[in-house]
Design brief:
The protein has 90 residues and is mainly β. The protein has strands at 8-10, 15-20, 31-34, 39-40, 42-44, 53-58, 65-72, 77-87.
């Protein structure tokens, strides 16, 4: 959904996702949270592409604000914000 600017809106039921390429080898899959740690995303790593991780989350009622993924592994803690996407009621 769009609000007439370059920003798009994600509403309850929409899936948001990202792909992490060339992820350093870690001992376990990363944990990915959104909305200040109150939501947890699904994380998948294809067996045939061990350095790529797919992250997906379905927006829930009450999710509002920037889509920021916090990625935690045994090696690092990083955050990625989608600059063009917000969650909430349009």
């Amino acid at each position: 959904m769009s609000n007439g600017t370059s920003q798009r809106w994600a509403v309850a039921g929409d899936e948001v996702s990202m792909r992490l390429d060339e992820l350093e080898l870690v001992n376990v899959l990363p944990t990915v949270t959104l909305f200040n740690g109150t939501r947890t995303a699904r994380v998948d790593r294809p067996l045939w592409q061990p350095r790529i991780v797919y992250v997906a989350y379905i927006i829930q009622a009450g999710d509002n604000g920037p889509i920021t993924y916090r990625v935690l592994t045994d090696l690092y803690d990083a955050s990625f914000t989608d600059p063009d996407l917000l969650a909430g009621i349009v």
